[in-house]
Amino acid sequence: MSIADNLIAIKKETDQNNVTLVVVSKTKPNQDIMEAYDAGQRIFGENQVQELVEKHEALPKDIEWHLIGHLQTNKVKYIAPFISMIHSVDSIKLLQEINKQAIKADRVIDCLLQIYIADEETKYGLSFDEAIELLRSDEFAELKNIRIRGLMGIATNTDNEKQIKEEFYELDTFFDGIKQSYFRKEDSFDELSMGMSSDYHIAIEQNSTMVRIGSTIFGARQYPDQNLLN
Ligand SMILES: *Cc1c(COP(=O)(O)O)cnc(C)c1O
């Protein structure tokens, strides 16, 4: 199947469930992205700042770019003028820098707090306790040019569907609690970004509102060095 065919098939599923599809285009050439674009897709996700900036410059300006990978504070300035959503906020320090650069760009930047739910050493993210501490902090209360739109999580990379389901269930439950406690009056706190190619069906069952899908649409990624996987 072509990229367009794959996209249309997945888009049908996500539309039926009222879920936003973020097409993950990392490592893929602009030509592949344009094939998805021409099939109607406008939301794309990248995990590296430099690649994201290059693609933003080269590709149509009505694309909404989402940053889904770990973000270093010193790179925020490169994406602040145009980024649609940052899924990977994992510290107050990073959030303060995003706010600072958003002020410079005269805009409000939509962010998700990345929550650590996987049973793995390597994944970034806040623990449940750290997320609560961040939201309660005075530093957070001062930030006016960021808007927390919800939470993001990455499940363990495993074939154990029960485990994946439990991790997504916990994140969904945490999302509801956070909304009740800290965002009750803010309708804009409404996004739960969870699910990728291998587990998006499970994520949608567990109330995901946003899935991030790459390889099912574009085919497997090729890395020069296998250590760079993910
Ligand atoms: C690469 C990546 C994805 C997409 O992974 P696929 O398995 O290709 O669908 C989703 N989320 C994040 C954070 C990623 O880095």
Automatic annotation (TrEMBL):
Keyword Protease assigned: no
Question: Which coenzymes or cofactors are required?
Answer: pyridoxal 5'-phosphate
Q: Which UniProt keywords apply?
A: Pyridoxal phosphate
Which Gene3D superfamilies does the record cross-reference, listed alphabetically? Alanine racemase
The record's listing under InterPro entries reads: Ala_racemase_N, PLP-binding_barrel, PyrdxlP_homeostasis
- N6-(pyridoxal phosphate)lysine modifications at: K26
UniProt xrefs under CDD domains: PLPDE_III_YBL036c_like
Recorded family membership: Belongs to the pyridoxal phosphate-binding protein YggS/PROSC family.
Task: Write the protein's name.
Answer: Pyridoxal phosphate homeostasis protein
Species of provenance: Mucilaginibacter myungsuensis
